């Protein structure tokens, strides 16, 4: 894409120097002289040469091996592609200040040139040239490869080798060699552009991206290269990097419509709608200020215009910001028509009289204090968006005026506008209006669809036109008998109209089709069980046949239910025997055993999860066996949207005279097994299954299974809940899901109040790194941790607290002055809030009293009698990670969290180290009150840390921390001393790599690259 042509198309003169400078050089002051620009170009070229030299060494690394033969063609196939972490490395380089302009005192680097060739290389190169001239390419290629192995920097050898492959018709190999040879040339934009476009023509997308990136090394503002690279990144699926590239173009060319369109598509895919909305709004504001009379009519198609304004309005409508959508359409229409100045008049109007159509009579118009109707033209797409926004705002009368204009058009030409309007009417509950539009769409083969017909049926049902709804759904099923949704909706209408048998037949037919399509059916548990017929879970009922109706008014008699459940129990017991038999092989890692174990266990887990008596509304009620509870007849209209299983159960109960028990032991004290297997054995199997899924890369499924089982009433006890939470934590640690690690640790700590082990477990499992730190400073977690600190303090001070049977925790007693207000409404549980928010607790329903429930859920822990240094230190560490050093040390005139922890535990090395880090961090901040005092305090705490830690016989850790502290203070000579001492004490493990890397940074910045290189080879190389 040629952006210089786009500039002309937007109505600007290509030789207008001011415009080009303003658009292509943002951030350059008008006073910058030409010398500064030349120095920038020189710096860019020097950086490009350095980068290309590094890439060249990387690309030829594999052919440097002496074992690589010159006749081995596979070794001479190069993987040329862009470094996946380049953008991140570039941001680090810019942030660290590397690559800034060199001053006049710095020595100039020697210019590039061909190396001095040895006599042997010259002789070989001459032989190769003779063979090439005589068209003996097969002879020349091995010789040239030998030359390159001896002297890789010989540009002549690379270019000649490329020509040989080109003469042999090996264009791809020739192009790769040309690209490698281009690294040895002076940086040339045209050369790399040609290589990139040729790579693109050969469909070598990654190679083309690599070439265009090289242009950006030389000239970061090359628009063509930015566009080509970003567009290719989008094609290759690297949407995030493509977005970054287009955003860079947008900084150079603000509001460019082509770039905005590309960003719109990418950001929708990345679900970054708010950011896209902001970009489009900024572009609209830019064009309104620079082109107040609207876009150039002669070049309107290539400028920011109607399609971009429609996209912006759609963004606002989807975000439910309907007022902004209205303002966008109205102001955009004025701007497009050159009437932007009219905003002063029309913005005060509460309605859309500005765009009234001819002949529309508006009430109140003509009075002395009202605005007249404008009758201005409005694009039909704009008018339809106005109708949608008005409908969602509830301004029905205004919306109908716009909708009538849209609906007066040809439905075949404006199908999309008709369907969108109908869907909005349906969302707003205006079924009669939606039905009229859907019927217009269904009247034409070109515009009719299954979705339209299903919506027509839904409109009829909501309007109580049940006969018409049955007719529509039946017609859909006649055209597509396998459409389950249509069967379900038709069954719901049958249920509403009292045709229960027809409804049940439809539901069972749909269920049987789904079961036949399931790859892991519960029928596969046992071949003997499979011979008994279609076996459903306890939450499902068998279809009612004529024969079964003769036996009883339910699907099965009591004896049939016993036989049915006995077969299910035998199948489950045999499945567990199979698991036990292959468990040893599975634990040894045998692939066949793992697959078999996962298959059998997955079927059992699914069988458990679909059993409704194990997941009751009251999750704290004890499991009493597989029974059908007595339920009163429901209002069928209110429950018409339940799933097939619920509908089948409900229909059979409504058709029967009473509910009877299925097989299962009914005891008010509950049972401790399910289908012959104890719940402890079920829990062990489910946890093993989840661990194995996580190890096999199916972490999301493992989390789904464990989270679902957590709400089973069979596992509502304290020990079971702890086990499941720990299992979730283990899976999250294995998968590296840091937000999940934090969340599961938080829940474990919440269910073990005033216990420091939960905090220690969190710090141990969260680990290090940027992702862990970002999760650690999550605002929700910060508030929860602070609430725990405050509650522990109140308990230690002897203030009254109350035990909650709802959240199974101590909470503030009523009337406590320090009880949480609106901001702390969640205090009633980190058990309370978590449980309530996640549906883990609720109002108790029959069978279990509060005391019984509390005793089963969690033992009442002893109250905290003194402040917890662990919790205080943890919150202080959160402040450190958030760079809130002052809050970590002190808060207002009181001691901060770390100082309070130090008062409680002065001999703890970790707390001393935290205080040293906090003082150092505060000392280097701009707002520090007494920088030198803070540094002295930091070194004092660091010395205390050393005194308490030296007994652990880990001197290398102490030396590293001292070196890191001195490095932060800029005392590099002292830092070098401690880093070198640390490396002398270390093996290849521990902090060796960190110490070597930090020391190498000091060497590089102090002008000793040789010492840094030695560190790289010893400690930082694989």
From TrEMBL:
SMART domains: TPR
Annotated keywords: TPR repeat
Residues covered by region (Disordered): 1-46, 97-117, 816-841
InterPro entries named in the record: Tfc4/TFIIIC-102/Sfc4 (IPR039340), TPR-like_helical_dom_sf (IPR011990), TPR_rpt (IPR019734)
One protein family per Pfam: TPR_19
Biased composition (Acidic residues): 29-41, 820-839
TPR repeats: 189-222, 450-483
UniProt keyword Hydrolase present: no
Origin: domain of life: Eukaryota
GO cellular component: transcription factor TFIIIC complex
Example of a GO biological process term: transcription by RNA polymerase III
Name of protein: TPR-like protein
Organism: Hydnum rufescens UP504
Lineage: Eukaryota, Fungi, Dikarya, Basidiomycota, Agaricomycotina
